[in-house]
């Protein structure tokens, strides 16, 4: 038995739960000054004075992009534990702001923060108004619930940036490199605050397996690819509990998930329906979110078209 196995036996997390926890970024948070708190658009900022900048978020993926992120996996058949490493890639993103470019630029000129927006990258997306479906419960969204925007809020906001990856995973560049490329022409991707983003802002991260440790002696195929969906606005943020080192931050837990080539007997607790139901909820939440935004997500379409949902788990 590997030294990792004792950790698994002392916890009751399934492998899919371990993966989700491993790939959840915990972002360094900042506090708004009193004057800035009063100036925030209260219809979106429902979580007080805690916020993060997009640069703070991208920093979480820098090391993961270079070395991968390890997810502990316990293989009960082999009585063995491995660390499966995954590389993150930006799959899709939409950034909507609660104020127009000119309004944010005026704020920056008054000393709020420095920003140099490309005016041509902005477009008013108010005609795409929808009801955003969401229920925050154990970091998940219910597909049949909705976060209703009343008449005065019936808009997604101002579309600042959007992107959807369509090329083969073999040709994709790491997450951090992709973000750096985009910020050259869209500097708001580095400077915008979570409090300046509307509730419609989101991103999807594709996670592809790269290697596992140890490399030998494993009879099960522990590889599998995943899509995680994250909201970016302060409207939906969760303030993480104290970490062992005393630091705290904002936990950006996935609200949606899709899986490809995932073996249910490896990743799910097959003795209960809890994991299966959770996966169904997460995939349905992602599907509901995309439909309400009228967004065709290439990777999601591929993942769901090549998977077969059955009672008891995913199979392919």
TrEMBL record:
Family matches, as InterPro entries: DUF789
What PANTHER family does the record point to? DUF789 DOMAIN-CONTAINING PROTEIN, T15D22.8
| Name the record gives this protein | Uncharacterized protein
Query: Which species does this protein come from?
Result: Solanum bulbocastanum
The uppermost taxa in this organism's lineage are:
Eukaryota, Viridiplantae, Streptophyta, Embryophyta, Tracheophyta
